[in-house]
Amino acid sequence: MLPFAPLVLALFSFPLSTIAVVSPNKTCGLTLAGSNNGYTCPGDAACCSQFGYCGTGDTFCLSSYGCQARYSNSTTASCYAPRNATTASVDGTCGLVGIGKNGYRCPPSGATCCSQAGYCGNTTDHCAASSGCQSAYGSCTATGKKNKRSQKGRRSAKLWEDRETKQDGTLE
Ligand SMILES: *[C@@H]1O[C@H](CO)[C@@H](O)[C@H](O)[C@H]1NC(C)=O
Ligand SMILES: *[C@@H]1O[C@H](CO)[C@@H](O)[C@H](O)[C@H]1NC(C)=O
Ligand SMILES: *[C@@H]1O[C@H](CO)[C@@H](O)[C@H](O)[C@H]1NC(C)=O
Ligand SMILES: *[C@@H]1O[C@H](CO)[C@@H](O)[C@H](O)[C@H]1NC(C)=O
């Protein structure tokens, strides 16, 4: 065994990060699209998303949305945390109560209101101040004011799903 000791030591002295291979096709990591290749992202698409794709922007880089620091290009950028009440929701949740865990703000159009339960939407339940609409995380309407957009709110969950698939499932 003794003659092999230097070899074993040599192997251990090279951490995996020094032999990272930059992705040839914007897939990264080990899971999903990364398909066990363990690629690191290139500098111009530095963040490795939870789905195993390299890219830029919140859906790729937010640590709260599964950005994989280990496979992101640390030279150019790295994963970052959302900014409370400022980062636009990437998953239809908002605020810090109920389903809201990341302090996301609802978008400026569409599902603009943050409900008491932490969902972005535009029904009266989401938007009325009397229903607990959270003004720190989106727009709200005054108590009692009618919101004619109620019916369309039911589609919001599905629409968010579609949006995620498009943004993260498609290579740039
Ligand atoms: C990316 O390239 C690797 C290595 O050639 C390959 O195994 C993987 O299937 C490719 N993935 C896509 C989505 O093209
Ligand atoms: C970042 O990507 C560039 C190519 O775009 C590559 O040369 C460099 O090694 C990468 N850095 C890391 C830390 O992976
Ligand atoms: C998040 O921002 C809201 C609105 O500005 C503020 O009321 C709250 O205290 C902040 N919470 C944290 C944990 O930063
Ligand atoms: C209500 O929100 C949904 C997404 O949740 C959006 O598709 C729809 O356009 C919104 N309606 C209005 C009138 O903004």
UniProtKB/TrEMBL annotation:
InterPro entries linked to this entry: Chitin-bd_1, Chitin-binding_1_CS, Endochitinase-like_sf
Tell me the superkingdom of the source: Eukaryota
Q: Which residues form the signal peptide?
A: 1-20
Which keywords does the record carry?
A: Chitin-binding, Disulfide bond, Signal
Give each disulfide bond as a residue pair: C47-C61, C113-C127
* Residue stretches of biased makeup (Basic and acidic residues): 158-172
Chitin-binding type-1 domain boundaries: 25-81, 91-142
Question: SMART domains, per this entry?
Answer: ChtBD1
Which SUPFAM superfamilies does the annotation name?
Answer: Plant lectins/antimicrobial peptides
Region annotation Disordered: where it falls in the sequence: 141-172
Q: Which GO terms describe its molecular function?
A: chitin binding
Composition-biased stretches (Basic residues): 145-157
**Database matches in PANTHER family:** CHITIN-BINDING LECTIN 1, LECTIN
Instruction: From the Swiss-Prot or TrEMBL record, give the protein name.
Output: Carbohydrate-binding module family 18 protein
The species is: Podospora australis
